[in-house]
What we know:
Layout: E1 2-7, E2 13-15, H1 19-23, E3 34-36, E4 40-45, E5 51-54, H2 60-64, H3 66-70, H4 72-78, H5 88-94, E6 102-106, H6 112-115, E7 125-128, H7 130-137, H8 144-150, H9 153-156, E8 161-164, E9 195-199, E10 208-213, E11 219-222, H10 231-234, H11 245-251, H12 255-271, E12 276-279, H13 284-288, H14 308-314
Parallel strand pairs: 5-6, 6-7, 7-8, 11-12
Antiparallel strand pairs: 1-4, 2-3, 4-5, 9-10, 10-11
Amino acid sequence: xxxxxxxxxxxxxxxxxxxxxxxxxxxxxxxxxxxxxxxxxxxxxxxxxxxxxxxxxxxxxxxxxxxxxxxxxxxxxxxxxxxxxxxxxxxxxxxxxxxxxxxxxxxxxxxxxxxxxxxxxxxxxxxxxxxxxxxxxxxxxxxxxxxxxxxxxxxxxxxxxxxxxxxxxxxxxxxxxxxxxxxxxxxxxxxxxxxxxxxxxxxxxxxxxxxxxxxxxxxxxxxxxxxxxxxxxxxxxxxxxxxxxxxxxxxxxxxxxxxxxxxxxxxxxxxxxxxxxxxxxxxxxxxxxxxxxxxxxxxxxxxxxxxxxxxxxxx
Length: 315
């Protein structure tokens, strides 16, 4: 499977935090001392299930009428760039595909900066972890009001094909529902366990990471908003960001679970460095590690070449 790393929404700029800022020169490759937060999404070319989009960032309608679609308070704080070229829709086309080729969308959770592109792919089946599905569909579920408030009406008015991914029962033939020791993993697409939705609780009621196994056998774990800044996983003790920490605390549904998830991700990186690469949804320095130019283009994949003619020749 070929995996593309996309930035589907640049947000407010933040500086590197703490000791890191002193070690990065202003002319360094990549985002440098200061960079715009991103909406890090994946576009996966599968052999049998078409294109799979992991998170959607901000959509085309969000950029046309941001206050109505995203909420004026959120727009004022997040300061989205609103560049239409950053939308997943435009980037899919620029890679040589049609929007209809996106057959599946897998979401880490149902917050506005992850669901904005849903109306751009109304035909796609949208997979979430069962706990996140229940949080927005069952009035009796814990955090139902909180969850539905953050799943913006503009992103669900078209009636997305929202689907809870199945979790294998204990002792089932297809496995015990664990992924590297994380319980409750769901396998939505029948891709022979090449893609898993892995519970990473704390940020939202059913927050999860999306794990994808590449052709080299290594796993990528898109950890969504389980953490916001690479220092939380890579530094000892964990180093959060002074700008982002209040956002994490304000959005979380369970503070203790969020911290426990962060610590479990630190353990995963430490114990399986050659098997799993972990990254989050908004850290621009993490995204830069996956980009051919090292992230010098702050818009992520905005600089991707137009490959439509090349793609047509392969069909």
